[in-house]
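Handoff note, outgoing to incoming analyst
You'll be picking up this chain. Sequence as last confirmed:
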Amino acid sequence: MPYICIRGVEHYYEWVKKPSGSLVKPVMVFIHGWAGSARYWKSTADALVDKFDCLLYDLRGFGRSRGQPNIAEPSSSVVESQSIAEKSAAIKELTYELDEYAEDLAALLDELQLQRVYINAHSMGASIATLFINSYPQRVERGILTCSGIFEYDEKAFTAFHKFGGYVVKFRPKWLGKIPFVDRIFMARFLHSPIPSSERQAFLQDFLEADYDAALGTIYTSVSKAQAELMPDEFAKLTVPTLLVAGEYDQIIPAEMGRQAAAKSENIEFAMIPNTSHFPMLEDASTYLHLVREFLQVNPPEPQAG
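Most recent structure output, in case you need it:
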């Protein structure tokens, strides 16, 4: 599997491409949400591959990416030893703040020598994308934020959420994935319309295998008083054309929160997909892709004659 070292941590990434002759396609980067992986973006990338070279990667500590630095002992060189010591010191400063994940993305683009991209991000990944776009607007052509929004700080609710989230992250025995139908139970709160069982099972597997520190750390950083106070200003600062897509019955980030976020900037278009919840790109792929293509001003591929 392809890995790349980003700020001292091994990250999984993959390209979804289709040969296009001499045509140079723009790049679209996909960012997943909490405890997920790039796997659930694969079908969307496959559908857009006629117009974009699609870059999928797993966030630090999630999916197939490492949560901790991979610092090998040098074989001989003193210079290597010093370099590794410097990297080690820098890595220790990494946190699970979302702006750190935005810097991970900047480093990934630098490593792959990508100057300007499109971004399609989901849930917690959409918050990371918003922070990245505002830090590096010159590097983003257009952004798509799926299931994102503004939430108000509620001390009791946040405390309860963190406590429950801590229990959930701590109790993740690997055998849980072998229980029949547990994937249905696990995904019930995230869905309104059905998705393939293979997708549900992949979600469960990603959750069970997520790095403990990353999974717990991002619960506290993504749902926090600081984040609740920060994000309204971040949405208001967006200067890059952005599409915000919400699911009508999303229980995680209700559509109204997305509508409020979109109202913060004239550069944000808002769209709600009926009869979907937290994964509209999977629950109603055709509607989702239609909205995305319309926003990006690209047509779907012509059907081939049989």
